[in-house]
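Hi there,

I know you've been waiting on this one. I reran it after we fixed the sequence typo, so this is the corrected version. Both the input and the resulting structure follow.
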Amino acid sequence: HWRLGKLGSKHLLRRVLYKYVPRALIERPKQGFSIPVGRWLQGEFGEEMRNRILDVCESAGLNPDMVRRELKRSGHDAYSTRIWLLYVYTSWHERWMA
């Protein structure tokens, strides 16, 4: 009964928010967001990402030749997400499986 009220789901949260946040921000539709992976790949962080992926790929069970091919394509926005996923996976593997 605390969660549902005349303001719908999250009744208590909305009551508090209305005191501090403009109504227009609370009542708008959900909105997605994206991370600027393409921009990251172009900078210094991109070089660090590529090096980490290459250092860890073989021990993480990835084919190094395929990884190198993907990294060569990384200048194209369509491949940015793939490179990001490789980076996240190899970072996870290095942290938890090494």
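Quick highlight: The chain has a mean pLDDT of 86.

Best,
R. S.
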